[in-house]
Amino acid sequence: MAGTVNLVCTRERLGEMLTELRATPIPDGQVVGENFTPADGCHIASGWETFSYQFGTLGSELWTETINVVLASINAIPYIFGYVALIVMFMFVWRAIKTFLTPTRDYTSLKTVTFGDESAVRSETAASIISIILIFVIWGTFTGSSLLPSFMHLPGPFTGEGSFTYTVEDADGNRDEAEVFVNVITAGGVAEEIEIDGGDGFAKDDVTTVSVYSSEIVSWDRNDDVNRRDDGARIVAINGQEFQFDPNARDDNGNLLDAAPSFTLDFARVAITDRGTINVSPDPGWQMQPLYLPAPEVVWNRFIEIAKYGYQNVYLTVHLGFSLFRVIVGFLLGAIIGIPLGYAMGLSNWFRGWFDPIVEFMRPVPPLALIPLVIIWFGIGEVGKIFLLFLAALWIMAIAARSGVSGVRITKVHAAYSLGASRWQILRHVIIPNSLPEIFTGARVAMGVCWGTVVAAELVAAEEGIGKMITTASKFQNTDIILLGVIIIGIVGFGIDMLMRMAERKLVPWKGKG
Amino acid sequence: MSGLAIDNISMRFDLPNGGHVQALKDVTLDIKQGELMSVLGPSGCGKTTLLNIVAGFLAPTGGETRINDHVVEGPNKERGMVFQQGALFEWMSVRDNVSFGPRMAGKKKADYMGNVDHLLDVVGLQDFKEKMVYELSGGMQQRVALARCLANDPDVILMDEPLGALDALTREKMQGLVLKLWKETGKTIILITHSIDEALLLGERVLVMAPRPGRIHKEYRLPFAEMGVETDLREVKEHPDYTTTREEILTMIWDMEEEIMGRTEVEE
Hints:
The structure holds 2 protein chains of 2 kinds. Chain A is α+β, with helices and mostly antiparallel strands. Chain A has helices at about 45-100, 125-145, 295-310, 315-345, 350-360, 370-380, 380-405, 410-420, 425-460, 465-475, 480-505; strands at about 5-15, 15-25, 40-45, 160-170, 175-185, 205-210, 215-220, 235-240, 240, 260-265, 270, 280. The two termini of chain B are about 35 Å apart. In chain B, strand 7 (about 155-160), helix 6 and strand 8 form a beta-alpha-beta unit. In chain B, helix 4 crosses helix 5. Chain B is of the alpha/beta class. Chain B is globular and about 55 Å long. Chain B has 10 helices and 10 strands. The interface of A and B includes residues 433 and 509 of A.
């Protein structure tokens, strides 16, 4: 290929003049400025045109996306208000109960100024407990959980039998009414046969079986001997409600003249399709489909199941063990290299200058962006993933150690010198202990980042691991396992942070007290 | 052992904009063994710079400091330092802080522990030996700092506003303690302070410094420190001479501060 050139082309589409930028290959043997002639309506774009079109297109795309996001957010507003109303309601209820039970007041309530006084704001344990319970209750209500009494469930999908009538008019204007029996069964359920005798008249009764959350097209004329759709017969009424719609009435382009009607019945939505058949969608109710959100007990049972028997021949402990193993090894390697690196950067101009550009460049690069590179370099084995976690921890630990060293008060160092300590003793007894609180803060951040990174890395490539479990589950639409994985990731991440905090309190009790 | 000689010290700081600040100019002092000298002066007169030079944290741009007939070339345990605050090691217990010097010198535990315990008794911390320093109040922390300095047995103790961060009552008690320790140990002490009362009560010699360039303005030899060893510090304050001297120095520093306000030079 001789090269590529940007052309600005104007063309007509649907009666609208459209100007667009096209990267066009230059045909062999042609040279821009000599024998290359752009197609009709096109000219070679100047540099300015190239970029103004790019940004113009980008701007309009982003504007459309912005509107989409805003519209989606507006839909969420009633739910947010509802949730806030619940929070406030529980607050007043709880306060009423508390005042009723304990007439004495705590000292915080004696303060005249509590708003803006940070010390007067403490985490209310009752609120935390209610909040967590409420999450499960909402989860249960929306999934029809068996853990909740059924009056707390939102209306579930319709199951069982329902029926509606339809009226057929044949080409000669004769009418007959027939009934459609709909049997709505739960997913994976077995339909009971509905016996029908077809009824009288030329239109025969129909029967259909639909799974919840799906829809079924009823070819109402399939069991009719005469007056089928091919003969010009069509439906003119559902449950006696007449409408004007003829699937055969079309203009020259084949577009329908009338809009196809739809009816909301007590058990289903019934719509007439463009081809004149009936589409039955049973009422899905307010609950979430198990595919979208399984009930809490389903997730719990799945947890017991895969804890006992594993998922896809891998035990849950193995998944979790591999993830933790990677995080711990990666973090330890990062700390082993990162902490001395940070110390060197904090103590020596030369090391500071040498590593500053590297650290400052690598620090904002999210480790996830390196996954493809790491897979190319190391393959999908353990080395690659641990290398990734090592990198994730390395910069955080180096920066924490560096600021720990830089943060030592010069008076402490001066005091140690005046007491006769040597440089090595000052490093050992002053600088290192002084930097430990910072290093612990860095370690907590690094562990959090590593845990997030390992899950993401396993999503991309792994044999086992909690992220791998989720990916596999998503391929089989095992939403319960995905949810279980997410919960386990959250709990383990929280647990890691708790352990780090405990270690911090135990090992650097002087933190924040200097 | 001889005293401390500050010989013609000058200190000039270069500024990033090419200018410079003369923090000290030709300061000469002789401090005898066992003297307690307090240094007073308005802000920016170079008190702390002088102390840092004597301690060896700063190299003067002119002149030299001699102690025990050798020239000061850096910090050393013969010159102990007590800072205003924040110089204790909060990762160590009170006892470990006080025994830091001897431990760094590699002494045997049996050799220094008796002295450390004794010093903690003297500063009134016998019940707090095993506590961590962050569990102590500000006044107690300064007692630890004093004990830590004494445990190392320095020839000269340099105090940079050691009581500056304490409340008035604690401060008065601590002044008494400093006097008591000075008398008991016979150490040479240089004490920098912002408080004229403290300078008069504690200083056998009181040095008033003047700013721009930092230099010695006037020197007093006062009897109040000796008096304070025997009597209550509050009685000393009622002595007629005390009041007169206090007024004199106050006016002197006041005038200097007034003069500074009129100028717009860059501060150190």
